[in-house]
Amino acid sequence: MALGSTMYTFTVQLADVDRGVYDDLALRVARHPSETDAYMVTRVLAYGLEYTEGIAFSEGISSTEEPAVVVRDLTGRLLTWIEIGAPDAERLHHGSRLAERVVVYTHRDPEKVRGPWAGKRIHRGDEIVLRSFDPGFVDAVAARLERRNALTLSVTEQRIYLELNGATLESEIHEQRIG
After folding, report:
1. Do the beta carbons of residue 34 and residue 69 sit within 8 Å?
2. What CA–CA distance (Å, rounded) separates 6 from 58?
3. How many Å apart are CA 164 and CA 100, to the nearest integer?
4. Which helix H or strand E contains 24, and what residues bound it?
5. Residue-wise pLDDT tens digits, 92-138
6. Superfamily of chain region 6-177
7. The pTM is what?
């Protein structure tokens, strides 16, 4: 018998000063048995940091046709392809051909994530952004996860300030182009 997903809820107060986005969100996030807590935390952070009208979690690991997070317009057209972790070059190439914008959020060492992409053909690779956090930040957030989470996510000057279930954490948001 296959194991089912574990459901997590996040009540999020979002204040992204850099983008002028302020909202209260209620998220239900399914963590697949093969998904790590760090991967799920990175998905939630990416959702908050990219939050806009039309954003949604995809079917995630069970879907090979979509990234972990997508942004679509009202007609259903794919605007932003948001990958998590360390996608391969072929996947980035595919996403870049379908969406106007591609961004990767990783909880891993960004240099090790970028390494396998070197010399590979990636459509509009110079426009794709790789975002990462300070070493240990995502793991520290994951260590404080509960099934029901109260999260305050503030962003100012490319720095994330996070309060999760009473613990306060912060990190710089590191950004680099992959091309």
Report:
1. no
2. 16
3. 33
4. strand 21-31
5. 999 999 999 999 999 999 999 999 999 999 999 999 999 999 999 99
6. Restriction endonuclease-like alpha-beta roll domain (3.10.640.10)
7. 0.94
